[in-house]
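Before surveying the methods themselves, we first show a specimen of the format, giving the amino acid sequence and backbone structure tokens:

:::
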Amino acid sequence: MDLTREQLEELLEHSPDIIIATNRKGRVIYYNDGAHDILGYESEEVLGEFVGVFYPSVDEARRIGDAIRSGEHGEVGVVSTFETTFVARSGEEIPVAITATLLHDEKGDEDGTIGFAKDLRAIRRQDQLATLGEVAIGLSHEINNPLAVIVNQATLLENDIAKLACELDCSVENERLDAIRREVARISEIVDRLGEMVKADSYETIHYVGPAKMVDLRSPERKRYEPDPRLRGLRILVADDDQGISQTLQEMLEADGCEVEVAGDGAEALEKLASGAFDLVLSDVVMPKMDGYALYRKVRELYPDLPVLMMTAFHYDKDHIIKRSRMEGLEGVIFKKPVDPDRLRRTIVESVRPER
């Protein structure tokens, strides 16, 4: 049984793909439900309008017309699965593959066009997932073995330090080894997350820089982070000559309800301490004008009850600032590259509110 004209029209109207027809002047004369669902325009908004409204530019609309007429992508008057971009009413750019043909009147003259456009977003997402799967397998193979070696060597190194140091203070060295293990575990977690995304057949992205996005590799637990109520209301002074570190710490602690001020060196930190009360000082080790050790000694002299936490990079304490500070009572040390948010919060609470 042949389909009637009415049945064909109904089939086109309810197709999930975009179907658009134009007259010989390029004005839209047909716009189906699929086009409405994907592009978001109402029929009355586009009927009679130039078809270029759907494209990023008039030049791109003309490129499609030229492709249909040139025969370079099939027979003359037809183009098949030609990839381009449509722009939705919301402004979103949607990748599509167009199959289109010229329409002719009874005299054989060109009378318009009709095009079927397939939304490629789902297909491209599947392609990206396949690529992600290959990356995850490659990373697991290439990274896990070296990570295991690093962990094993860190354990051996820790044993050697214990034997050679005897009764010397090795707390800094041991904390460095703990930091290495912690970051190795974090890398392993990231690799595992990639594998989980591939198995789940889905992934999320977050904004990176400008229009660029990156895969969101945060664990579900990190995404569900809740502010620590024990930190709410604390006034914290961050002293660090690295503005990037200061800003990161400020944003992190303010998210927990802290009031945070920053200083670029020890001298500026003392000025801020003199102008207002603080619950804790978070200080870098190496700073211009006055380093962390000098700041710590001055704080102990002027504000003996004010807790001080010292921050250091993994391997930089050539002047033994932390060891000298520890000999004079320093208790808290935070490795700052990268900052471990959970350890930072826990150490602050233990320093300021030990009863909790």
